[in-house]
Amino acid sequence: MTWRVLDLDGPILAGKQRHYACYRDGMQAVGKTPMEIEAYWAHKRDQLVAADTSDEAFKAFWLSHIEEPEYLALDRLQSGAAEILKKWCDAGDQLVLVTMRQHESRVIEQLKSFGIYDYFSSVIVTQKPEKEAALSGIDPKQAIWIGDTEVDAQSAQRFGCPCYLVENGLREGAFLAQFAGCTVVPDITVVP
Question: How far is CA 86 from the centre of its chain?
């Protein structure tokens, strides 16, 4: 049996539309002009922060809105994600979702709406970047971590398990390639 520790946003859900809508609305709320979606997404994936997004009023808008139902409704399942989750479950793997979202009930509701909630043996919502702290009882030698950011790479390294980072999430493959011990893959469907 393998424990598969998965991040939600990136490996499983595509959040480009949600992130952009919240950014656009936040910029407009503070009286600023937002970038177009492709420019915004390129900045986000390259970890470039637009000067306007450092505004405290914008940050407050972002944090209070990014997980509101109207924005969450913009998320989509990554291509092939539901099928690979089912395949892993059918093979007897244990799937553990670990996310840095703010609202556990909204995470569970979203998983149910996509028909994938039952694939997970547990859902852990934590605000701590050290996500691995929530994995007591799991032997790192029997686990793999699947994420899409530097936080996932660092958590997997501290936990002591192999890590797969998907390129179709929040960060570019070239950036992800710098993390020792991590394998960069196009998407979740090619994780062994």
Answer: 19
